[in-house]
């Protein structure tokens, strides 16, 4: 297996595991902490807006290449094995049905809120302070 095929297989597993988390988040027996991490990861992964925009050289792709797969790995490890198997089965069925990729407007809203909060904090920090 050459590098190109290995990267394609890795990308397909990441996509499948992202969908797995989406289905696991809806499962009633998923522990709350796994749901919390999973919901955050899925909201971020499906958000049309990145935390670090892709047009920023090098840094823009760090979240796509390192951060997102790492968070997916962590969330998958938190799932009980039976829920993981069932959710993966559902994710594979979804992918094979060629359904459209789900989007998360909540994720987009959270990312926008984080950017606004960061901008506001930076603006307040840079404001000139009156001398006492």
Descriptive report:
The protein is an all-alpha fold and 132 residues long. It has one domain (3-126). The protein is built from five helices and no strands. It has helices at residues 3-26, 32-46, 59-78, 81-96, 105-126. It is globular, with a radius of gyration of 18 Å. It starts with a helix and ends in a 6-residue tail after the last helix. The mean pLDDT is 82.
**What share of residues is helical?**
over 70%
Q: Which stretches are low in confidence, meaning pLDDT under 50 for 5 or more residues running?
A: none
The main β sheet shows up as:
none
What is the overall pLDDT average?
A: 82
Order of helices and strands: HHHHH
**What is the overall silhouette?**
globular
The number of helical runs is 5
Compute the number of strand runs: 0
Distance between the termini: 69 Å
| Category by helix and strand content | mainly alpha
> What fraction strand?
under 5%
Please, how many domains? 1
Radius of gyration: 18 Å
């Amino acid at each position: 297996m050459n590098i190109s095929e290995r990267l394609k297989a890795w990308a397909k597993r990441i996509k499948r595991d992202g969908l797995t988390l989406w289905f696991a988040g809806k499962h009633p027996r998923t522990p709350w902490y796994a749901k919390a991490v999973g919901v955050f990861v899925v909201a971020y992964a499906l958000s049309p807006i990145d935390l670090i925009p892709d047009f920023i050289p090098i840094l823009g792709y760090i979240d796509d290449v390192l951060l997102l797969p790492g968070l997916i790995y962590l969330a998958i490890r938190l799932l009980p094995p039976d829920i993981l198997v069932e959710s993966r089965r559902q994710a594979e069925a979804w992918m094979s049905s060629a359904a459209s990729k789900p989007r998360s407007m909540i994720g987009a809203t959270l990312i926008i809120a984080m950017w606004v909060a960061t901008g506001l904090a930076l603006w307040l920090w840079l404001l000139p302070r009156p001398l006492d």
